[in-house]
Specification:
Shape: elongated
Number of domains: 2
Order of helices and strands: HHHHHHHEEHEHEEH
CATH class of the largest domain: Alpha Beta
Number of helices: 10
Low-confidence stretches: 1-6
Largest sheet: 5 strands, mixed
Helix content: 40-55%
CATH architecture of the largest domain: 3-Layer(aba) Sandwich
Mean pLDDT: 89
Strand content: 15-25%
């Protein structure tokens, strides 16, 4: 009976699609097995209850997760792999979707891409002369509230990719997307470097937990 219940989420996906499953059911598929005396679906439900949300569960480090009954190195690596796979999926969406069709779609994808980042990450989208995305790169990684940015490295990579324009994006792990004085200063430095090389700086997005701020919309570019 328990084995049948453990397979039920898989059968549900085949019948109705993944969107029909609850967070616990999806989590149970990745965990694969439960612990002694606890079926995998019950384990998944308990973990979500103990951590408060799927987001907090996937952000938990090994020390914290290992304190939970039924969780060890194997299941921790499974959850880490799921989280990283999701991040890479959102990253590749830039290359397969027309995110340049409107600022709201681009903002949505940036929110998804930066979700869960505990440190500041500075990303650059490199575009051709038709403003189509050639690639996106995480150029610099920093601390909880600071990232050191080198405009020369951005220009060098843009030339390497034969990019005609770029879009900047970085996150604020605090969740507040309001640009700092330092954000505006580094944007000016990058803008100046781009102007010298004939590369257009189209925008700079600062990404919080629930929203983004666009420098272009603010009239700063």
């Amino acid at each position: 009976m328990n084995e049948h219940l453990a397979l039920l989420p898989r059968e549900k996906i085949l019948a109705y699609g993944a969107a029909a499953l609850s967070n616990a059911e999806l989590l149970a598929i990745f965990l694969r097995t439960g612990s002694q005396g606890e079926p995998v679906l019950q384990l998944a439900e308990r973990l979500l209850k103990e951590f408060g949300s799927l987001y907090l569960l996937l952000q938990a480090d090994y020390t914290k997760l290992a304190q939970c009954k039924g969780m060890g190195a194997c299941k921790f690596t499974q959850l880490q792999a799921v989280s990283e796979l999701a991040r890479r999926f959102f990253s590749e969406q830039f290359l397969h979707e027309d995110v340049m069709s409107g600022p709201e779609l681009l903002k949505t994808r940036l929110l998804e891409l930066f979700a869960g980042q505990e440190r500041e990450v500075f990303m650059v989208l490199f575009l051709n002369n038709q403003h189509q995305i050639i690639c996106q790169e995480e150029m610099f990684k920093g601390t909880l509230n600071r990232v050191e940015v080198h405009p020369r490295e951005i220009i060098r990579f843009a030339i390497k990719m034969n990019a005609s324009a770029i879009i900047l994006a970085h996150n604020h792990p605090s969740g507040n997307p309001e640009p700092s004085v330092a954000d505006r200063q580094v944007t000016e430095r990058i803008h100046s470097a781009c102007s010298i090389m004939g590369i257009k700086l189209l925008d700079h997005f600062v990404v919080g937990h629930k929203s983004c701020v666009s420098f272009t919309e603010r009239g700063w570019l």
